[in-house]
């Protein structure tokens, strides 16, 4: 809880250099540098390894090397190490985060944003089904650049960019906040929030953003279509 409170406090202090966004005039883009490692959530190499080697096939020597690079924030070396040893399908460890604060509650008034495609097939007719677990927080109107999110595809590969508003204090699950590891040739250093969304008993899969909106917990607003496929949906509200 102490770490969670410290992280929330840091989120409320905009110690960033800022530039205006021509595409989102009501928002400001955060252009901060990559923060240093100030805390390590994982106690040892084996704990970190559970995030990229759940079946226990990686040698202890390799686990120790990965943990050392992670602790020191040597991100370029860590990515090279993962690629050369074919670890985690090329994805970063720790769900792509460091300086982690776990089990942070969601509260009314919080805003987040996300890039994604639709869940399943989408013909362009009606409201797309949107899902996923990872977002970036929007803090007092400040948004993170695309590169600070360290996503694995170029921006124009994503069909939707949307904002998520938390409508009340009734969400029964919590989130994990972290700084973003530089990866995939992206600068990283932004903030990410991993929502620990439960399974929908009706489908057997994690609840979608649409489902959470239907239940009254959030509101989703599609802001744009980076791919250009669904520009007409900009401004669509899912609630």
Major β-sheet annotation: 8 strands, antiparallel
Adjacency order of strands in the biggest sheet: 3-8-9-5-4-7-12-13
Query: Helix share of residues?
Result: 10-25%
Categorize the overall geometry. globular
Summarize model confidence as the mean pLDDT. 91
Please count the helical segments.
5
Estimate nothing, just give the exact number of structural domains: 2
Kindly, what is the distance between the CA atoms of the first and last residues, rounded to a whole number of angstroms?
A: 31 Å
Regions with little confidence, pLDDT below 50 for 5+ residues: 1-24
Number of strands: 13
Structural class: alpha+beta
- Compute the CA-based radius of gyration: 18 Å
Order of helices and strands: HEEHHHEEEEEEEEEHEE
Structure report:
With 239 residues, the protein is α+β, with helices and mostly antiparallel strands. It folds into 2 domains: 2-36 and 101-238, no CATH class; 45-98, no CATH class. The protein is built from 5 helices and 13 strands. The strands form 3 sheets. The chain has an 8-stranded antiparallel beta sheet. The chain has a 3-stranded mixed beta sheet with strand order 1-2-6, with no helix packed on it. A hairpin with a 7-residue loop joins β1 and β2. α3 runs antiparallel to α4.
């Amino acid at each position: 809880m102490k770490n969670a409170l410290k992280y929330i406090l840091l989120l409320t202090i905009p110690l960033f250099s800022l530039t205006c966004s021509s595409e989102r005039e009501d928002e400001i883009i955060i252009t901060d540098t990559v923060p240093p490692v100030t805390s390590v959530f994982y106690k040892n190499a084996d704990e970190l390894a559970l995030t990229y080697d759940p079946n226990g096939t990686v040698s202890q020597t390799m686990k120790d090397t990965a943990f050392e690079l992670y602790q020191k924030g040597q991100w370029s070396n860590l990515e090279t190490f993962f690629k050369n040893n074919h670890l985690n399908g090329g994805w970063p460890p720790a769900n792509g985060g460091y300086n982690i604060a776990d089990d942070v509650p969601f509260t009314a008034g919080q805003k987040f944003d996300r890039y994604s495609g639709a869940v399943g097939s989408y013909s362009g007719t009606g409201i797309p089904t949107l899902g996923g677990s990872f977002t970036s927080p929007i803090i007092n109107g400040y948004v993170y650049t695309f590169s600070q999110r360290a996503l694995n595809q170029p921006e124009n590969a994503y069909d939707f960019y949307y904002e998520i508003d938390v409508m009340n204090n009734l969400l029964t699950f919590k989130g994990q906040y972290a700084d973003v590891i530089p990866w995939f040739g992206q600068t990283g250093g932004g903030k990410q929030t991993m929502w620990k969304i439960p399974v929908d008993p009706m489908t057997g899969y994690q609840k979608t953003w649409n489902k959470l909106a239907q239940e009254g917990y959030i509101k989703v607003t599609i802001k744009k279509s980076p791919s250009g496929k669904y520009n007409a949906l900009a401004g669509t509200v899912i609630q």
